[in-house]
Amino acid sequence: MTLPISRTRADFIAYMGQALEAQGLPPIAGRMLGLLIFDGEPRSFSELATELGVSRGSISANARHLLARGAIIKENRPGDRQDYFCLAEQSFDTILAELIARMTATSQAVRGFAEALPAEEGARRRLCGLADFYAAMAGGVTQALQRLSTMR
Question: What would you measure as the largest C-alpha separation in the chain, in angstroms?
Fold first, then answer.
């Protein structure tokens, strides 16, 4: 790997750690995902731990986060006791679908709080505005998911 590619790879992996941390996931999960996206090939626990400079326990915990979200999948190889991880084929679809579900649930919950208030209450109006915001975001992400599906 050339130096410019190696530098870009390292910067991308670090960026993904920060980006996923901003979304509420541990930065190691983001770095793992970034490495798997950039390299495009399965990696073992040991390889991930060595590459990212973290413990195997940290890899295990963060792999669980990514597996639960459908971003990565686990592979086994005949004769090899290690688990390998790779990017799930439809990982971006899964991430968007999860985001839609979270935004829709938040919209519904906030609307429930709003509806518990009298109609003339200013807080009700503000809560309805927040519920509408989350509903609109869910709608926008739904459109993005549909567009992504047609681009393949």
Answer: 69
Average per-residue pLDDT for the chain? 92
CA dist 43 to 8, 21, 23, 25, 151, Å? 19, 22, 24, 20, 28
Residues 117 and 127 sit within 8 Å (Cβ to Cβ) = yes
Does the pLDDT at position 52 exceed 90? yes
Whether 60 and 45 have beta carbons less than 8 Å apart is answered as yes
| Domains of the chain: total | 2
Query: pLDDT tens digit string along 56-104?
Result: 999 999 999 899 888 899 998 888 888 899 998 877 787 788 889 999 9
Same domain, 69 and 135: no
Question: What are the distances in angstroms from CA 65 to CA 20, 31, 49, 81, 106?
Answer: 11, 12, 16, 22, 21
CATH number at residue 45: 1.10.10.10
The reported pLDDT for the residue numbered 129 is 96
Token readout for 23 is 């979304």
Domain that holds residue 112: 91-150
